[in-house]
Write a structure and sequence with these properties.
seven-stranded mixed β-sheet; globular; 5 helices; alpha/beta; single chain; BirA Bifunctional Protein, domain 2
Length: 225
């Protein structure tokens, strides 16, 4: 790895079960801490799953176990911050595994930078998106379009990340109080634009904006095993 510059290896992983993605993140956090790999950006989608953050309020889970079973929705505890959220097909999930040392050891800045990545990505689609004072995430006039929940472990290594609704079936958000916010609509790129959008389009935008906002170049491929 080049100690003089920042390098980010992006990996498009397709559809990955939530538990598998957690294990992969744990492994990459360990390897990043040891200096064995460059910073990583995992881009993927999950099968239907509801996740509970470290600050989750169980009353925000509206769907009983039977409904979740019938609709094929798993339930998982998550090590990220935040409340409850939904992931599913058509939603672009990004897990940055970054070493914030030496000059980015600021959680508030990191969250704002992730929001900026998503706002600029949506701008590429002609969508005006913004922050909402006092909350983490990204909103449009039609509703919340992206959620953010991160973890920063010892050594200032990040995991978990963001979820951007691209072609997501928004009906599934009715199973929860999204991020614990009552009476807040949710939106997707497709619902705002009124046309089909491929996940790959959003991935390409996120990759570009991650490099721009974080000032990185493409990193070396990860050797597995």
């Amino acid at each position: 790895m080049d100690p003089a510059g920042r390098r980010l290896q992006t990996r498009r992983l397709g559809r990955v079960p939530y538990a598998d993605a957690q294990r992969l993140q744990e492994d990459l956090v360990r390897r990043r801490r040891a200096g064995e790999v460059d910073d990583q950006l995992l881009l993927l989608e999950h099968p239907h799953v509801i996740t509970l953050g470290t600050g989750a309020d169980r009353t925000h889970l509206l769907a009983a176990e039977e409904e979740r079973r019938v609709r094929g929705v798993e339930l998982h505890e998550s090590g990220r911050g935040g409340d409850i959220t939904y992931h599913g097909p058509g939603q672009l999930v990004g897990y940055p595994i970054l070493d914030l040392k030496p000059d980015r050891k600021d959680l508030h800045r990191y969250l704002r930078d992730l929001e900026e990545v998503l706002i600029l990505t949506l701008e590429e689609f002609g969508i005006v998106a913004r922050r909402s004072s006092g909350f983490t995430g990204v909103w449009t006039d039609e509703g919340k379009i992206a959620a953010i929940g991160v973890r920063v472990s010892s050594g200032w290594i990040t995991s978990h990340g963001f979820a951007l609704n691209v072609s997501t079936d928004l009906d599934y958000f009715g199973m929860i109080v999204p991020c614990g916010l009552d009476n807040r609509a949710v939106a997707s790129i497709e619902s705002v634009l009124g046309r089909p959008v491929e996940l790959a389009e959003a991935m390409a935008g996120v990759e570009r904006q991650m490099r721009a906002v974080f000032g990185v170049v493409e990193g070396a491929p990860v050797r597995e095993g």
